[in-house]
Amino acid sequence: MRYLTAISLLAGILVFQACRESPSRKEKLSGHWEALRVTEEERPLEVDPEEIQFWFYPNNTYEFRSTLNYREAGRYRLRQDYLFTTDTLAPGGQEKAVEILQLTPDTLTLRMIDQEKERRLELVKAE
Q1: Alpha-carbon distance 78 to 29, whole Å?
Q2: From the centroid of its chain, how far is CA 118?
Q3: From CA 35, how far away is CA 107, in angstroms rounded?
Q4: Domains within the chain, CATH numbers bracketed
Q5: pLDDT tens digits for the chain (127 residues)?
Q6: Whose CA is closest to 32, among 117, 114, 119, 124?
Q7: How many CB atoms lie within 10 A of CB 53?
């Protein structure tokens, strides 16, 4: 009986440690991201991906820079597989949502619909 109790206790500690050491989605998202490629309807868009960057901060704020000197910043939140952003630089900024297809400590893939076309943005964590 003591043997089973000891094994159960050890298993519980290992599970707790594994859960505790696994970064949360918010921790994975936090940081500076740079675009690798942008596709629309599975075809590359002719944009310079180096101009597209995100910064996500632990206090649930973000900055976004894109082509043609486009900038936005504001608040973000995560819910299931979606990233919601509200641009507070624009008057009456509306909340937007994009689907998170992949989020690892070094890769982020977002899916959005723009003018009824699917667009994907693949990013890597900047050093």
Answers
A1: 10
A2: 18
A3: 10
A4: 24-125 (2.40.128.540)
A5: 554 454 444 444 444 444 444 679 999 999 999 999 999 999 999 999 999 999 999 999 999 999 999 999 999 999 999 999 999 998 888 999 999 999 999 999 999 998 899 999 999 999 7
A6: 124
A7: 16
